[in-house]
């Protein structure tokens, strides 16, 4: 994959509109394992294995070879067969990771093969080849799943997520180096190498079981030299113990770290976009926040409240909302350039809590304050405060939870109305009105999914999360709802009081506290969370009776300070995850001034990808219903700032903003009809894709818009359906012309008497019609196929479906039109091809030279 250093391409011009009537129809399809010539397959692997062993080794100390075994996409390797559990020096499985491929995840197992045991796997492979003609080939369980064998590099030993591996091999950084236990001298050999090359290590190291862990400050190139010189390294990770290290330092020593970061800090200008934190207030005097929040940008939702904060939650959120990753900023040795600033509204009183019934009004008032003070400033409203839904009646837990799950409340509906752009009228101090008659001004809200507050150590945490619906108001249709996943499961940096505690969630899995929308009525309520971000982990005591989050499993952030206290603390859960995502949203506004809130939301979701454990669950699920349940647990995965902000030559993202008029009527009060469809004929790298032919490529489509809510609880069907309107997208198929595509999607485009084309779901889509038919105001799907097939898919239609505007003539605002954003990306991970430049050239204005 090429470096992401190109801007996304904002499509100029407007789509073509045409009168529209939706046709009826539906359908769907989809299914693998090793099938082929075992003899040929085994012979190829024998050749690859021998080639890997024959690679030159110029370090006399090395007495073995690291070999990587790659699985077929979507399959797992027989890991136990790769790890030889016998006495003496034997082949040892040292690291396992997954890498993405266009056909699914590939498992990579790296094995250390001692020089005296090189024949071990050669014998297994040869026996497989020799018995390939038999009904049951020998060692088939091991060899069938192996796609390729190659000599390993340090890249294969990196077991954190692919996206966190350093891209610059000359960048000096901290590495967590895991040494395999051989003869008790592995640490001595490693430290001798470090001293000989003038490198730095941590003062302390950790030894447990068969591994010794030490921190090394080096470049990837220097580490690669150690890997080729020593054969003690088993695994590489990101250092995860810095948060606990910093928070445990005395205040005076923390101040030195703070000052060092401030020297490298470049705050954003006064006119930059902001994250507006609706919380307990932000301590603007904190030295890591002071240059990014001005006194006029500190507000209170209630004028009777004192402005300075009393509680620390808002200040903790500010550190993550400003830096995104404060941990990374502290570790970075270069300039930290901030793209956005902060605002704060004290949303909660210093004592007690807001009346539940007033949450919607208080939110509106909180939003109003900064909008009055700084009109027109691009801002992201971040809300990491949620309320529990009513508790189920004893004995009726499941049925009650199902009935309540996903239903709008006054608070979530207020969020939807504010996001849709309703004006705020709070001239009466006790009454807040969201005005439909004023021009709309859409807003972006980033809201936490809420936490499971009573995690139990003995629970299956995924099953528990599936039964815990997201909290109010995160069921909001228009908000970007953020859940949490756990990026750390290493207890090596835990304080002494956590001896014996074990992380509940494996690294990369959903956090034990994160809530989901698995219980939502699938046809009525949207997928939540939309994305997940790092929210730390929870550890259970040895007897499972106690759970807590040690600082090494939490996120570093800014501390609410009292006299003599330090500057750093840790935070966790969906609140922390939400603050990090809000930072990405503000950076998008900074990179692309003028984008709509709908577009910023779409770019974040569009950038998200599932971690390896999440993807493994999607790949193992064969039914579309099962896939949508996983989507309701994980959303679209973890957003990535680089993917949200930049394209690459071989990973092109197109951004289209448009307006559509959903419904029309004949002048009576009867139900309206669908009015128009938008046809986007996007600038497309047709020639380049056709040249790639059968190469595998991927297309992702995200449609984002805001609905006006109908919060009245009257069955949520027909005229009382919750959204004002719905939109959907469809793409042209390889065998279709643009006209036949239009006729398939739009009844009014057909010639009288013409037989409508088939509406079966096209093969290649991950979710297909299940996702498109689901409720919500954001729809995203992923198509995989050949480049030749993708060459003809640059035509995309956006069209309206049911909403309450259609059935209520008096309130229908279709004539004003509604905005939507369409994000389309195409990637060619298998081949090196420039897709970005030819499309960029298509959208550049022609300059005429006159003489």
Which characteristics define this entry?
alpha+beta, 851 residues, 23% strand, 25 helices, 27% helix, 5-stranded mixed beta sheet, 7-stranded parallel beta sheet
How would you summarize what this structure contains?
It contains 25 helices and 38 strands. The protein has 851 residues and is of the alpha+beta class. It has a seven-stranded parallel beta sheet with strand order 15-17-14-18-21-22-24, with helices on both faces.
The outline comes out as globular
> How many distinct helices?
25
- The parts where pLDDT drops under 50 for at least 5 residues are 25-33, 390-403
What percentage of the residues does DSSP assign to strands (E)? 15-25%
Oligomer: single chain
- Helicity range: 25-40%
Helix/sheet category: alpha+beta
What is the β-strand count? Answer: 38
Q: In whole angstroms, how far apart are the ends? A: 45 Å
Biggest sheet descriptor: 7 strands, parallel
What Rg is obtained from the alpha carbons, in whole angstroms? 28 Å
With strands numbered from the N-terminus, the spatial order across the biggest sheet is 15-17-14-18-21-22-24
- What would the average pLDDT be, to the nearest integer? 86
